[in-house]
Amino acid sequence: FATVLYDEAHHMAALEFNRVASFFTGHRFGLTATRNRTDGNERFFEVHLGPILYTDLSVDVPPTVYFAHPGLAPTSAERDGFYTNDMVNVVKVRQWQAQNKLRNGMIGRLAQNAQGAGHKVLVLSHLRDGHIPLLQEVLPGCGVVSSKVKGKKRLTNLTENDIVVGTMGAAREG
Fold first, then answer.
1. CA angle 4, 9, 15 (to 5 degrees)
2. 53-62: per-residue pLDDT in tens?
3. Helix (H) or strand (E) holding 154
4. Cα distance between residue 23 and residue 1, in whole Å
5. How many CB atoms lie within 10 A of CB 93?
6. Could you say which of 13, 46, 48, 52 has the lowest number of CB atoms within 10 Å?
7. What digits encode the pLDDT tens for the residues 97-133?
8. Cα 64 to the chain's mean position, in Å?
């Protein structure tokens, strides 16, 4: 090939993708929204692609971000359950949050208030099976976007629903 385009080029830092990159000569272009990797290994894809040619950080409509604090705190016993080998297990913390009915009720009210103000609302969670069904309970009739929802159904859920619940992973997929 005379030209190769690498989508999600930041994955080229992984060994198997890095090996494949050297198979192709000619013009190479990489697309990524993850310029800086948390492991610092961006130098691996820079070797194959060279320096950045184009960056556009502008947005047509700047987002307005609101933070809502539910005022919830785990009990001492619940906090003790968050640890694995003396380290905080983030998955266990997320599971505790996902199961909290007061928190889910607050998420539901915030989403419905935003919808009532004329906004389309996307509610994202880290846990597909552990949280999405609970959000569906507090947001009946919402659309769902997760790895279980594919193709046209995903697009339909996004375009035909004012409130959509989904996973962070699905949001990354687009």
1. 100
2. 888 888 888 8
3. helix 151-160
4. 10
5. 15
6. 52
7. 999 999 999 999 999 999 999 999 999 998 888 899 9
8. 18
For 70-84, give the DSSP string. Answer: ------HHHHHTTEE
34's tokens? 């993850």
The answer to whether 109 and 140 have CB atoms below 8 angstroms apart is no
Instruction: Report the distance separating Cα 96 and Cα 126, nearest Å.
Output: 12
127 close to 162: Cβ distance less than 8 angstroms = no
∠ Cα 27 9 169 (to 5°)? 150
Burial of 81 (0-12, 13-18, 19+ CB in 10 A): middle
**pTM, whole model, 2 decimals?**
0.64
Alpha-helical runs (H) found in 2-150: 15-21, 42-49, 76-80, 90-99, 101-116, 128-138
